Amino acid sequence: MAEEANTLSEVAQDTTQLIHSAGEKTAKSVIEHTAKYNDAYSTIDKFVDGFWERMPYLCIALVVLFIFWLLSKLFKFFVRKTLENRSYTRQNLVLVLNRVGSTAIIFFGFLIAMVIAIPGFTPSQLMSALGIGSVAIGFAFKDIFQNMLSGILILLGEPFKIGDDIIVNNMEGTVEDIQIRATFLRSPDGRRIVIPNATVYTSAVTVNTAYQRRRCEFIVGIGYEDDVQKAKDIILKLLDRDTKILSQPGFSVNVAALADFSINLKVQWWVNTTETSTSASVSEVQELVIDAFAKHNISIPYPVQEVKVYRGDPSVDELDSGRAK
Question: What is the value of pTM for the model shown?
Fold first, then answer.
C-alpha cells in the first residue's frame, strides 16, 4: 500500500509538472501573438490617426480642385461668348482654346490640390517622375501623342470645320466633332465614322462643302442618226429655264465621246448648295432631258448586238451529198 501511494504521488507530481510547463508554453505563445497583434493594431492606429489629421487638408484639396473645375467651365463660357459672335473668328480656334485652356486650368488646380493634400509633395517631384518615365511613356503612348498633336494642328490649321461634308480615305461623311484624339463623321446612311487624327492629318481630304457653288454634270447618249445640235439646244433651253441653276459660271453641253452605240454629250452646270443639293439638281435635269428627248423624237440608245448564224453554203452541201452517193 505504501508503494502504491508513492507511485500515485509521483504520477501526480509528473502530471502537475506537465500541466505547469504546458501552461507556461501556452501563455508564452499567447503573449507573443498578442505582441504581434499589438504591433499591427498600433500601425493601423497610426494610419487612422494620420488620415484624420490630414482630413482637413484633403477636404481643402477637394474644394480647391472643385474651384478650378468651375474656373475651367467659366473659361469655356467666356471664350464661347467672346469669340463665337465675331465674324472673323474661326470655329476651330474656339475649340482649341476651350479644350487646351480648360485642361491647363484643371491640371494646375490638380497640382495645387496635391501640394495641399500630400505633405512634402512638390510639382518638381511630379515633373522628375515624368522625366524618368518619359521614354517608356513615349513608346507606350506613341499613337496617342501622335493623334493628339495631329488633332491640335487640325484645329489650328482648320482645313475643315464642324458641319462640313468631307472625304478621307474613301470615307465620306459630315463632320460632327473634332476631338484631340479623333475626328467623328456621320456617313450619308446614318452611321458614325471615327477616324484617328493622324490619319486625317496625313491623308488627302476633300471638302465638298468648302464653297457654296458646286458643279454638276452627267453624260447622256444620243443615236448617230439624231441631230446633235438639236439635242444640244434642247438641253441648253432646259438649263436656262431652271431657276436653281446659276448663269455664272455658264452651263455647257459638249460632245464627250463617239461611243460604240451612241454620241455621248456631257452636260455641265453650277448650283448654289444653299438652295439645292448637287444630287437633287442632277436628278431633276436628267428627268427633264428624258421627257424632252421623247417629245422631240431624239433617241437615247442602249447597247445592241447583232448575232449572225452561219448555216453553210447550200451548193457545197449538195455537192458533198452527191459525191457520197
Answer: 0.55
